[in-house]
Records
---
Amino acid sequence: MGKSEKLFNVVTCISYVIVVPIIIFLTLAIFFNEKLFLISYLESEHFIDSCVEISEDRIDTANDGKLVLLYGKLATKDILTDPLFKVSVDNSTSLTRIVEMYQWEEIKEKHRKRSGKRDIEYYTYSYHKSWRREPINSDLFHDKKGHENPKKTLHKSISIVADDITIGAHKIPSNMIGNYGPSETVVLDSSTISLPDADATIKGNEIYYKANNKEDYSIKKSDSLSKEKLEYLEKLPKIGDVKIYFVKHPVCDVTLLAKQNGDSFTHYNQGRKSFFDIKYGKVAKKDMFKDITALESFAMWMPRILVFLVMFFLITIIVNKYKYYGNILSVSIPLFIFSASIFFHWIPYKTVFALKSLAVCIISIIMTVVALFLINLSAYKEREKDFYDGHTFSKRNNNFKYEDDR
């Protein structure tokens, strides 16, 4: 046995001593985590079953502190008014003033090109104009000249939420509704609007401010342009122009999932779980929990996938010398452990899911048996080859002779 072969055997033994206990530990962790996943699932199912569907017409004090489901139409008597422009709306849960300014925007693009034997990365910068709600700091641009933006907007965007929002006899906390539901642009009435600035004009459903700058860097005027063309160019927005429009959220039908707290509602907290949700229209109780259960499902599968990859890597270290057949074992063994754990825990509760796991478990067993058979067959052929390489065969008396005896 050569030195390299001895070294290989020593490394293999060390890998077995280190890796095998880790794999055993991960196997136990898989079964323990699956039990935790099952407990979390059963808790969610309990919340779904115990959730009480209540009527919007009356308040039942027996449901205080319970997780409830309420369907009805939002209502409010509040008149929402913008304090600056005096735009008012009714039958709406919120009114939002949206302020946008026409600004330069920088687009940074990464490129790669071949130079000799290595790749060189470089960046290009392009600039275009757009309406943006937040001021863009042009001092941070790569090419500042000719792309200057105003430092701030003329006015700020604000949102006003109704204080008194109800569904039938129940009060809905305004901080839990906010800008909820379908939105509509407010139709402006010039006779009731207050324009605090002399340079403000009304264009359709927008309040418009023309910028003070006289040069638009994207338009190069010349004497050759026609009067109509110049008038058209003058109508285009220029850097620093500001437009203001208003959006309301009219009252609408909703389904609410929350904890009843007297005649109002709050978050339902139980252990690590927290329930409060509101959806547009009438939604079935099971569907109200979909987002929560989907998040839990994601939280279940991410650790499974991560541990599967770790086990795949560890088993690959052990069976690496078997090449292709070892790769089959690297997949089939973790697959068997996971599918067996899922089947063992979930068969009483999610039969179809568990039976699918059982099918995967059987497939992984078949894969493992086939891989072991192929590994043994390959090893047998390797030993047979070594045997023939060290011996000669005499056809005359049908026996083997060592090469040294010839």
---
Amino acid sequence: MSTSARYRCRRVTPWAATAALGVWLWSSFAPVQAETVTVYTRNGHGITGELDSRSDEQTLWLRVERPGITLVRSFARAEIDKVETVPPATGAQPIRVFKLAGPPLPRPELQSIIAPEPTLPIASIAVEAIVANWDADVEADGILLTLYAIDRAGQVVPIDGSIDVELIGEGQGSTALLRTFPVLGRWVRQVRAGEFGPQSYQYRFDFQTIPPDFDQRLGMFGLVHARLVAPGHGTFDASTNAVTLRVPNPMRDRLQQYNNQRFFYNERTGNSLQQQPQVQGL
């Protein structure tokens, strides 16, 4: 005999057809010794059968006898409206009715398992940099670097690895002396996927020499070069366009030209600039 997905069929012997009252009914309804019950569901259907010993606090199991087979039906607690005990005499009136007390217990939910999308290899990186101030004084404190790791689909993605960053400046030079391009700073740090922001990574790198605002020998612009080493992906290089190291300001330019300083007396600046190393190669 074929059955629906909600029924299971198995052959039983006559002596095995009697089942004890399940734990679920004992804990959910008043104690009862009846073996045959009618289960009424919340949608109005009623099914009569014998309680199965597998019943528990979440599920009631009912066995419905048919010639040569037994149909086994399960009811979740939330499906049941009431249960009536049925005496052995055919056609007799029910002797007791039990209804659920209070709301049904929540049914355990199966957690959906979503396979993570495969990670595409990194194809390239891109970097942007600006000078920035992140303390209480007025001069710039270092380079704010923005890093983008781009996969083969063109999407910006998180990545693990390490990044090597260099800030390259420019000496003013003269007609008798060729311009120089000293390295003003070099930084190495770890890149972790957990640090990934909305669409990029951002890192602060403090100046390692006298800030450009205080060194008249430096040109106005610089360049930042970055190298990302990402295990499993490879090594990737990128450089910025010109980075403004000293923001153009005609008044400050004249102040620096005539007074050898770029900030006014009432502007607070760093207190240990004279202790910072000079730029080599200018």
---
Amino acid sequence: MKRPGIVLICSLLLVFVITLHAAADPLLSLGTTNVQPGDSTLLNLSITGEPGGTYAGVNARIILPEGVSVTGVSGGAGLPSGSFTIDHHPSSNGANEVAVIAYSGSGTYKGDSGVLLSLNLNVAASASNGTYAVKFAETNTNPLINSKHALSNADGSTSVAHSIQNGSLIVGSGGGGGTDTDGDGMEDVYEEKYGLNPLVDDRNGDLDGDGITNIDEYKKGTNPALDTKWVEFSSKGTEKGTFDEPYNTVEEGVQAVAPGGEVIIKAGTTDETSIITKKLIIEATGGSVFIGEEED
């Protein structure tokens, strides 16, 4: 089996950072998210696999940075609504860990579904700025079960081989310092880097006119001066190209973004093929992205 990648016809610079894979074990991945001390944010647990793979459950023990707690877990677009039970609880081994699980007695989900679970992370007000790893546990606390991370087959009778990819939590600008002269929630170093005014509260502005406010760009770690469109293959709601209302095809994102802009694709799989004829940046987030048709 092989999966041809996107066809690129482009005389200008194209920064292409999507990971393309041949057939392989499904991938469980933790995303990357940005948050201010004392605030909360969502971190996604996603699956990426070959189309046709079907699963009945997932569980994982996730190691959190100090000062970070999980206040809730909700199902993502990859889990059929209403047919899965979702739960979480602190680890029993005394470490700053959380165990999450989604299971069903009758429902299943596809391996190319995208986001399975969204963890609501709360960060202590005393947390220092920096970039911190959020990792899958590497050892089992119970020798009788796979408590570190597991993916069950379609009837729930056995675990399926899979790979993992850890995520990260960016607190503040990720680089320390923390000065926010105008008190708009965005650090001076960030505003100066991207052409915002560190002396004016411009959190609700939209420097690049892409429909995403400056403060939301800051929280997501994106560039407020760069037109950004979001894509999530499993999205079925309103499509505006934003993080919360993304397009569901690469073509829509590519057509909508301004030349020199950025298309960010959430982890998932599509058999779509595209021809790109303008300068832009394409980036995968929250895990690997599979693009292209399978061939024998």
